[in-house]
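Changelog note: in this version the structure field was regenerated for every chain. One regenerated record is shown below for reference.
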Amino acid sequence: MLVNASYQPGDFFLTTVTDLCPNTTYEFSAWIMNVINRFNSIMPNITFHIEQPDGTVLASYETGNIPVSPGPVWNKYGFVFTTPTNNATIVLRMTNNAPGGIGNDIALDDITFRPCGATITAHIQNNPTDTVDVCQGNINSYTFTGNASSQYQSPVYQWQLSTDQGITWSDIPGATETTYVRSPTMAAGKYWYRFTVVDASVAGITSCRIASNLLIINVHAIPIADAGPDRVYVKGYPVTLSAVATGEDISFTWNPMSYMDDPTLIQPTVTPPKDVTYTLSVHSAFNCSKKDSVNVKVVDGIYVPTAFTPNNDGKNDYWRIPFLDVGLGADVKVFNRWGQLVYHVSSAIVSWDGKLNGQLQATGTYVYLVTFKDRKLPDMKGTFTLIR
């Protein structure tokens, strides 16, 4: 914040603070820089006030003249103050005592009013840092250890958890010792923990708690590896795999990479000489991985059955074209002897039950017509028999 002083000395920061911990030492401070570099200019002079709402001054601190420097220099100014025993409401005030004019302009940062309690630390046993990255499904438990200053006569401990990166905190039920064992978490997310301490005499006032450094467990989602549906490769007509890979900072590989136009593509085009299974392996930057496979069947051509018997005996009840890969974009139509369209499907699996709008169709000969998107294959036309 940049403060351009008015011509008359006055306040430039004023706020009211409530719910303080009684009989506790707080620090009231700020980082201040004189932004004027002329040595004959007016120098800022700031007073920090702590007051009661009626204006009674409880404590104050003066910076004195904040000197000019050839370049930008930040300095911390402030003091400590012990709150009243009655948990009173207090007013924080900062006043510029110097007049405006040539000079007396300041930059202000990090205005702080915080408790100066004992140093509280926490760490994860057998881990060199305060952060652990694991993959979803990891079954490891982690032991947290907290340490508090010996100045607490009757310390009350409480471990807390935040799942929104520190916006809100909740007490962990039963976690009231210096050691806490974190059980595995199945759901992905960012789990922040901290160790808090308060003296038993003021344990009922949550604002009196002093918190430790953060311990962070990042549970990363398993990446998605979907190699796509099984495919049929009609020799001479390459087939493109319909794979998908998503996740946090992922990479992927195909195995085998043979007979692919470009194995660095997530959806390569393949032309294997015989049936093959391709495996897609997806890895994240956090060593989370997933695999999926796709079978590619190789055929010389598309066979169209010449008859079927839809009598619900579980045998040959549907007219299907088994090697008609959906990736070919085939449009399939079936007509009865009078030229009526009785079945139609496009870019999907062919499976006719011998009905039209739920009505059984008569025994007889039917005509099929298969056309392909973008003329990938020649049109196919012929007949088959429905037998009841």
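Spot check on this record: The two ends are 87 Å apart (CA to CA). Residues 20 and 313 are 81 Å apart (CA to CA).
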